Amino acid sequence: MQAFHTFACVFPLLLTFGAAACSAGNGETAGTADGRLGTNAYVVADAGDLQRADTHLKGSGAVAFKQPLGELGSKKSYDLAFTLDDGGSVTLITQADQKLENGVVLVFTRVGAGLSVALGAAGQIGEAKPLDGVDAASALRIVVDVHNDESPAHVLVWADAEFGEEKAVFNSEEDGPTPGQGTGTFWGLRLAKAQVTTAVLGDPKFVEQ
Q1: Taking a C-beta distance cutoff of 8 angstroms, is the pair 193, 85 a contact?
Q2: Neighbours of 8 (CB within 10 A)
Q3: The pTM is what?
Q4: Alpha-carbon distances, residue 9 vs 13, 46, 132, 173 (angstroms)
Q5: Which residues pair with residue 6 across a beta bridge?
Q6: Higher pLDDT, 47 or 160
Q7: Which of 7-16, 26-35, 41-50 has the least mean pLDDT?
Q8: What is the DSSP letter of 175?
Q9: CB of 2 within 8 A of CB of 176?
Q10: C-alpha distances in angstroms, 202 versus 3, 43, 78, 85?
């Protein structure tokens, strides 16, 4: 059985909105926009040493996007393009609250040319799983489905433009279950020695039959 650890021990999410945060209901955006990545407005959740431009985010830090997920039990895809320094990571946090807590978390980490993903929710995170055939030393395009209408949330990851359950390089129903569901309607990214050029929210790539 796959082991899970508490975020406090393995991956603390030190994400706060500070003065930018405001009270928000379901599907409501939070804070005043600090910048944009492409057309997506965001609030800086952790400035770190993050370098920000309309075309990229670079360095280490975190942002929360103002585009809400709409509902707690949503099914969404997340199209990400990024590069990682050796030892760097990009974390997708979705179905979270305004502080990017209590959500579904995917941590993509590079070691050498290898890429792994660790999946978490409900305050726990699983062991990192290597993604076979993915060259983390090159520019990456990763697409993630999070089906938070299922319990636990169903998560799929693709490393190319061919979608379908059989094409996924990670499928939580086969590679280790999500330890719960997200309990909010916000999403964002945490970077550590990384550069992100694309983060696009869309409809799910895989539809259950």
Answers
A1: yes
A2: 9
A3: 0.86
A4: 11, 20, 27, 25
A5: 124
A6: 47
A7: 7-16
A8: H
A9: yes
A10: 31, 20, 6, 27
d(CA 25, CA 63): 19
Task: Please state, in angstroms and as integers, the Cα–Cα distance from residue 70 to each residue in 128, 150, 188, following that order.
Answer: 29, 16, 14
The DSSP element (H or E) to which 7 belongs, if any, is: helix 7-10
Structure tokens at 129: 């799983």
**CB 37, CB 56: distance < 8 Å:** yes
Hey, is 19 helix, strand or coil?
Answer: helix
Per-residue confidence (pLDDT) for residue 123, from 0 to 100: 87
Q: Give the chain's end-to-end CA distance (angstroms, integer).
A: 27
CA–CA distance, 200 with 112 (Å, rounded to integer) = 27
Token pair in block for residue 167: 């094409």
> How, if at all, do strands 56-65 and 40-46 pair?
antiparallel
DSSP conformation class of 50 = -
Please state the separation of Cα 90 from the chain's center in Å.
8
Report the run of H or E that residue 111 belongs to, with start and end: strand 104-111
Distance (Å, rounded) from C-alpha 107 to C-alpha 82?
13
Cis ω before 130 (30° cut-off from 0)? no
CA 129 to CA 147: how far, in whole Å? Answer: 20
- Neighbouring CB atoms inside 10 A of 16's CB total 15
